[in-house]
Structure formats: C-alpha cells, structure tokens
Amino acid sequence: MPNSRTDSLAGLAERLGAIQYDADGRLQHLLTLEGLRRDTLEELFALADSLVEVGARSVKNVPLLHGKTVVLLFFEASTRTRTTFEIAAKRLSADVVTLDVPASSASKGESLLDTIANLQAMRTDAFVMRHADSGAAHLVAAHVAPQVAVVNAGDGCHAHPTQALLDLYTIRQQRGGFDGLKVAIVGDVLHSRVARSQLVGLRMLGVTDIRLVGPATLVPQRLAELGARVCHDPRDGLDGVDVVMMLRLQRERMAGGFVPSDREYFELYGLTEKALAAAHPDALVMHPGPINRGVEIASSVADGGRSLILPQVTNGIVIRMAVLAQTVGREAANA
Asked: What pLDDT tens digit does each residue of the chain (335 aa) get?
C-alpha cells in the first residue's frame, strides 16, 4: 500500500528539482539541496577540488565568469556568507554589485519582485540572495529570465544550501567519504536553516546515523520526521559520533523563552571538553558561525585541534565558486 507522506515528499523533491535544473538538465538555480541529484553534489565537490588545485598554483582568478554581473542581495546580516560569495565571484572574474539594502528602494516600500525586475533590466546575470522569509529565493527564481541564475544564501528557517555544501565538502576532505559516519547536529535545530540543509545533504550522501541533539523546546520530537533521531540527553546524542555540528541559538527568530538562560543552556548542551569526550576520540567539531563562546561552545573546543570552524570558512570560497560556475557559468562549465 503506498505511503501518502512518502509519496508527497518524493513529489515535492521532484518539483524542487524541476525548478532548479534548466531544460537541458543543467543546474540553473541553487535554492535548496532537496530535489538535487546526488551526482550534482559530487560534480560540485570535484569542481571545488580542481579550484583548490588552481589556488595551490597561486592562480587566484580564472576567467569563467568574465563579463557576467552577480548581484548580492542580503536582506539579513551576514559576514562569512556574503564575503565568501563576493570573493568567489571576483575570483571567477565576474563583476560584483552588493546592494546596500537599507539605502535601496526596498526601504521605501518597493516590493521584492519590483527590485528584482529593475536589477534584471540592468542586465544582471545572477542574484545571490539572503532573506528573512522562507521561500523568497524560490519566488525570485520563478520570476527571472531563463538565462538568470538565483542562488539562495539563506531564507528564513528553510534552507542554506551552500553552507551545507561547504560543511559536507569539509567532512569529505577530512574523512574521504561518508560511509558509516555518525553525525550529531546540536543546538537550535528548530530555527536553523543550516540544520535542515545539512540533514538533506547527509542523507543524500548515505549517512544513516544522524542525531538531532538539544532541549525539547529547540528539538521537538516531530523533527524526527526529517530523517534523524531526536536526542534530548546530550550524552546519548554525542555517544561515539564522528562529527559534531554545533548550532547557534537563533535569538532573532525566537519569540518567547526557549531556554532558561545562556548559562544553564551551556551547562547542559554546550560543547565542552568534557561533553566532547563522549564522542569518538577523533571526532570533528564544526560550526557554521557566528560562534557564541560560552553559550554553545567552549573556547578550548572552538580553538582546539579537532575544530574545523576556520577551514569551513576557507572551503566556503571554493564551494561558492563551484556553485557560481555551475549556475551562472553553466554553458562554459558544461561545454
């Protein structure tokens, strides 16, 4: 007998895939990891590897996107994502425009689609967009011209595909693959677009032991529907895991009290040396940033030998170069 929920999820993934690939089956938009083919992820990782090799030869810029214009539209604050996208686009020789949203017509009441229409009239080739509303990037992708690419740099609590890609790439770089890995995602899963994208990517790459760890207010049992085991006991959640992905408390998305206090949250769920001892001795420590020391992670762990927090940032450049190459430069990249 067919499972209506499974069928509906499969149908959703198919529709999301149809939005993101062009008529020739090439990646046009990156809005979410849902609906992508596994070989797309592997192609992005392989392209990132080649870009690392190019960088190792002290060749910083390649002409793949010469003559293309990439507009960065960040309606929410960002340091790592916005900066690495800007560096990535410039290293591909694109012209980069960063819209100052508070000083733009959006602050005067102009709608998102009107802003996009006007920027597209200036012969823009791609929009990299972060927005507080879930689905904003999908809305824009549905209204741009066929030759224009849209890359989601984070939309509400929904998705952050390039962050998940760089996290997965970093794990692959360190472990060589994903077979048999045990992964714990710890913290404010409820409000985290990063966690949702990480879950999709990990499952796509064959990881079956994924644990969502945190208090019931931030990791409700219903999140097990996403394909992971919910653990409210941090010792159970971290037991023997190979990768610990920490998450920030997303205060800007919280309405009401989700934790008693930062101090109590840190005592129960903060990643300290003592808490990390429950994981595998060689467990990797990751965090998408910004980190809040003494709230979700101890400085000794964040700065310790198993921390990949800064390598994640570095890998953000080559992964975002790969994404822009495959979307904005898809004709040349697939020639």
From this structure: 445 544 555 566 678 878 999 999 999 999 999 999 999 999 999 999 999 988 777 778 899 999 999 999 999 989 999 999 999 999 999 999 998 887 777 777 889 999 999 999 999 999 999 999 999 999 999 999 999 999 999 999 899 999 999 999 999 999 999 999 999 999 999 989 999 999 999 999 999 999 999 999 999 899 998 889 999 999 999 999 999 999 998 766 555 667 778 899 999 999 999 999 999 999 999 999 999 999 999 999 999 999 999 999 999 999 999 999 999 997 654 44
* Domain 161-304 CATH class label: alpha beta
Residues 250-258: contacts with CB within 8 Å, 24+ apart? 250/188, 250/191, 250/192, 253/157, 253/191, 254/191, 258/188, 258/190, 258/215, 258/217, 258/218
Domain 161-304 in the same topology as domain 4-156+315-333: yes
pTM of the model: 0.92
By annotation, the residues acting in catalysis are 80-81, 108, 130, 160
Q: Does domain 4-156+315-333 have CATH number 3.40.50.1370?
A: yes
For the chain, the domains span 4-156+315-333, 161-304
